[in-house]
Design brief:
The chain has about 425 residues and is an alpha/beta fold. The chain has two domains: about 140 residues, Lyase, Ornithine Decarboxylase, Chain A, domain 1, CATH 2.40.37; about 260 residues, Alanine racemase (TIM Barrel), CATH 3.20.20.10. It contains twelve helices and 19 strands. The strands form three sheets. Strands 1, 12, 13, 14, 15, 16, 17, 18 and 19 form a nine-stranded mixed beta sheet that branches. It has an eight-stranded parallel barrel with strand order 2-3-4-5-6-9-10-11, surrounded by five helices. Strand 15 and strand 16 form a beta hairpin. Bound molecules: pyridoxal-5'-phosphate. The site of pyridoxal-5'-phosphate has 17 residues, from helix 10.
């Protein structure tokens, strides 16, 4: 069973001030998890989590993570600007972007962000845009399929061979050699090979690959890496029957690979970086919405006041998000519903054929695990507007951390063009 971090009474009281739909985040949960993450890697003195801003680009959330020792991982100019405005500075920002405009490299360098090069041709783009910084990182793509050790057997997790990211091994050797010749002094290695892994073996398996590669890089190019970034990909159990990842076991697994591979190769000074989004935030966000319509045709539909504008994952790739009908947690799930939003798209459904308690108009629904890649993915199709974001503070109070969009926001980019 998934238990919401808010009760029906709380939501009824919050909704008097902030109408549904809204996203709400649990400060206590975010802090607890960030501390568990830090503890899991405390064996590595240089460890740092660079939170993937794309997952939840909300200043109040980034500020909480900053207080917990995290940096940011940015993929665009606006994410860099947000990090800058929140006081993240030299060494606290990773810039892991791809297909990068040259001016964004220049902006990142000005901020002292660690630039993670996605491609060997970007060395020249970076050199011409702003010169090669002293600290630089390269992204690796091993090609083929990525397999992960899983309880004795091996399971296929993802296909880097089809992914647009990163450099081949040969390109990496060439890149480090060139970057050294161009004046770089501190080097890192990065790879993101599987997404939303609910499996404690992902990071240790990836670490084994990257640590062995680090040894090869040292032998082939003379470059001793200063840091290895395991990137994102540690997942969360969206489904109630999935076993959550154990971050302490994951940290221990990475440590074992470190001691087995890097220490004997004289690379014991390597810092471990991560740039998780989902694991840091997803479970600590709910999309709260109200049942506003019911419809009985060939199927039973419940229409809610949220839509794919507020949470796109189910519409985009059929992602499962658990739903709790507040106040009916203990009632039998004996009704089969499609829970829909209002978009003129038949995939605007938060759940299909989902067994839930009987839903009445006015019931509040919590859509779980929306704290990462939730609000952030929203768009404005059908002229629908993005919701507010609220924070359930550690002391139990609630504050608004982003207001809802208004029609004026929607029309703002048309100002001056009505007569054009
Ligand atoms: C470069 C990079 N780093 C980190 C992340 C965060 O991934 P996750 O939220 O799965 O941890 C992403 C997500 O798309 C990414 O593209």
């Amino acid at each position: 069973m998934k238990k919401p971090f808010v009760t029906k009474d709380q939501i009824e009281s919050i909704a008097k001030q902030y109408p549904t739909p809204f996203h709400i985040y649990d400060e206590a949960g975010i802090r607890r998890n960030a501390r568990a993450m830090r503890d899991a890697f405390s064996w590595n003195p240089g460890f740092k989590e660079f939170f993937a801003v794309k997952a939840t680009p909300t200043p109040a959330i980034l500020r909480i993570l900053k207080e917990e020792g995290c940096g940011t991982d940015c993929s665009s100019l606006t994410e860099l600007m947000m990090s800058e405005r929140l006081g993240f500075s030299t060494g606290e920002i990773m810039f892991s972007s791809n297909d990068t405009p040259p001016e964004e490299f220049a902006y990142a360098k000005k901020l002292g962000a660690i630039i993670n090069l996605d491609d060997i041709t970007h060395i020249d783009v970076l050199k011409d845009a702003c010169g090669i910084p002293e600290t630089i990182c390269c992204r690796f793509n091993p090609g083929g399929v990525f397999e992960i050790a899983d309880t004795g057997a091996y399971s296929v997790m993802d296909t880097p061979g089809d992914a647009k990211y990163g450099m081949t091994k040969e390109q990496l050797f060439e890149a480090y050699t060139r970057l050294k010749d161009l004046g770089a002094k501190r080097f890192g290695l990065h790879a993101f090979l599987a997404s939303n892994t609910v499996n404690n073996a992902y990071y240790p398996t990836l670490a084994g690959i990257l640590f062995s590669l680090a040894v090869e890089i040292k032998e082939k190019t003379g470059v001793s890496l200063s840091f290895i970034n395991l990137s994102g990909g540690v997942g969360v159990p969206y489904k109630p029957d999935q076993e959550p990842n154990d971050i302490a076991a994951i940290g221990q697994g990475v440590k074992e690979e470190f001691e087995k591979i890097l220490v004997p190769a004289g690379l014991s000074d390597v810092s471990i970086y991560t740039e998780l989004g989902r694991f840091m935030l997803a479970p600590y966000g709910h999309l709260v919405t109200k049942a506003v319509h019911e419809k009985h045709i060939y199927k039973e539909y419940i229409g809610v006041d949220a839509c794919a504008v507020n949470l796109m994952r189910p519409a985009m790739y059929g992602a499962y998000h658990h739903i709790t009908v507040l106040g009916k947690e203990n009632e039998p799930c004996d009704h089969k519903y499609d829970v829909t939003g209002s978009l003129c798209e038949n995939n605007d459904k938060f759940a299909i054929d989902r067994m839930l308690p009987k839903i009445d108009k006015g019931d509040y629904l919590v859509i779980h695990d929306t704290g990462a890649h939730g609000f952030a993915m929203g768009y404005n199709y059908n002229g629908r507007l993005k919701s507010a974001e609220l924070l359930l503070c550690e002391d139990g109070s609630v504050k608004e951390i982003r207001r809802a969009e208004t029609p004026e926001d929607y029309f703002a980019t048309l100002e001056g063009y009505w007569e054009a």
